[in-house]
């Protein structure tokens, strides 16, 4: 553990250690402090039934670990332990990530952690999706962990209550959304979602597990009521946006870069106009004479669709299996553990967007994609195809599973906790474009879905920066030129140019307001990946060589995590 590498007085001489050792010691120390990290990575004792300490003291302990790790890194670099290229790369990432995380912590953002996804509350519920359920012993462990839910949520409420005292609160839209989400989790029979989760357990364990599930659900109900009756009134009147200073801090956290926000905003508007023209051309192939919105509405209502939960899960599994079969050996060289990826249905109360969870470090738990049902029974395929190239293959699964496969060559930190959102989301959006380049999206409906996904990511840059930083719609905007971009106007603008359901759009707006700076990483990350590929292609041409895209893909995916400050430069040299 990192603590053991540091002297009792808080100093270190760095003797006998390297940045990669320090980084991996940090992973294991954080897994000790945060058992959810241990579950996600598949490390730690098999009988561990703990949940994290979400109280202010728990958050302070995590921040203290980061500070001690940075001190150890300082000492190691001073002692010359980062002279090798691999060590320098790991040191650079570890320093940048921990510094960005501490900046967020020290600004008090922990105390505002009420949002519609990726909050401590969501982590407590979602960990149960990752736990094995094959044996009575595993169900017993689940029961013990369920019993700890009330204490974990009590710590979270303590954290938020201190935020109320300090005047550090989330916006009212987040509060209302989270209250609704918890309400969905509690619907149904005894224990709500938790009761349904333990229903398949062996009969001999049902009584104890159901009691634990009911207690866990009760704790979530108490949290919901407190948010409604205490936190919500305190948050009334708080802004839903964060302003330029807070936003820049979050952008560094999500992208690993200090971006020129005004340049990114202007570039995204250029992308908007280009994509609008492409979508208009493609829409005519779907619905002659129709606008993009009309064509997408037709595809949504009358186009090809899959009916039923299991049928759509199987359809998405088939898309990923076929992509692996077609791409393997031609565009990628995948190791055997990467060939397995599972399609799953997301639990009720999830945010609207599909998502991916990576494999455990030993691949005993494979990578998985998750589809939120949102109460639907019919699933139009026009926008699912490109989305599953993004979430599954060749998107998130190939990158994150390849990182896991390379953990021994890099460091565990570089392929897990050091992940930079904009790098990962940028690769996944690049993966959609790659499949278009390779001819997998020739069906007009599927290609309109792909272009709509690209438009959504360009609009994300526009509305995320515009709302939080307080920019105006530009003079060439087709919507309210010269007027301030307020959240409700951003929602209306988004809906006019992106073919998503009203429910999905509402969820997206809440997401952008709750995770400032995260949503811009998709399109800006893709830009970095494309620039890196074109620079590598140009370098090969200058050497008189043919660009080997398969080799470039595998080299790029084996680098581990990089922030956008470093990504394009590293990719250009591969």
Strand ordering within the main sheet? 2-4-3
The helix fraction, in percent, is 55-70%
Mean pLDDT level: 95
Q: What is the count of helical runs? A: 24
General shape:
globular
Low-confidence stretches: 1-15
Instruction: Write the H/E string, N to C.
Output: HHHHHHHHHHHHHEHEEEEHHHHHHHHHH
Alpha-carbon distance between the two ends: 34 Å
Written overview of the protein:
The chain has helices spanning 19-33, 35-41, 56-78, 85-106, 120-126, 136-147, 149-166, 172-185, 192-198, 206-235, 243-255, 261-286, 292-302, 309-327, 384-391, 396-405, 412-415, 421-437, 444-469, 487-497, 502-514, 521-542, 549-557, 564-572, and strands spanning 305-307, 341-345, 355-357, 367-371, 378-380. The chain is mostly helical and 574 residues long. It folds into three domains: 1-107, no CATH class; 121-238, no CATH class; 261-461 and 487-514, no CATH class. The strands form two sheets. Strands 2-4-3 form a three-stranded mixed β-sheet. Strands 1-5 form a two-stranded antiparallel sheet. Helix 8 runs antiparallel to helix 10 (206-235). The longest helix has 30 residues, at 206-235. It is globular and about 60 Å long.
